Amino acid sequence: MLLEIDTQSQTPIYQQICNQLIIGIAKNQLQAGEQLPSVRQMADEIGVNMMTVSKAYTSLKADGYILTDRRNGTIVADRQSPTSQFQEYVSERLDLLLAEAVIHQVTEETIQKNVKQIYQKFDQ
């Protein structure tokens, strides 16, 4: 999986890395147990500082998306069951996103259609 970094984006590079890896996992482009490049390799491949990749990996590890082991390197973690804390996090993010949609007069029908289309992109 080749990551595409947009240096002109308002989104920090480490967050772009996190977002793309999470999407790759959700789309089954990255499988549980699959080896990820080392921090150094990833930084070289995408042309960013090693500390940026390290920050992304640390964040992904804290959120349970990847596992690191000194002997085996970094691998994709198994899919997780939703905890109440995660469900609350999703609800809060949706609340803000839907508030923005309402302000921009996006209809509920359009939102539901978009959610269905996006959700279908991800393998269950």
UniProtKB/TrEMBL annotation:
Keyword Chaperone: no
Keyword annotations from UniProtKB, A to Z: DNA-binding, Transcription, Transcription regulation
Keyword DNA-binding: yes
Annotated ranges, domain HTH gntR-type: 11-79
Organism annotation: Candidatus Enterococcus dunnyi
Highest taxon, organism lineage: Bacteria
InterPro entries, sorted: Tscrpt_reg_HTH_GntR, WH-like_DNA-bd_sf, WH_DNA-bd_sf
GO terms of molecular function: DNA binding; DNA-binding transcription factor activity
Position of the signal peptide: none
Chain coiled-coil ranges: none
Protein's name according to its UniProt entry: HTH gntR-type domain-containing protein
CDD domains the record matches: WHTH_GntR
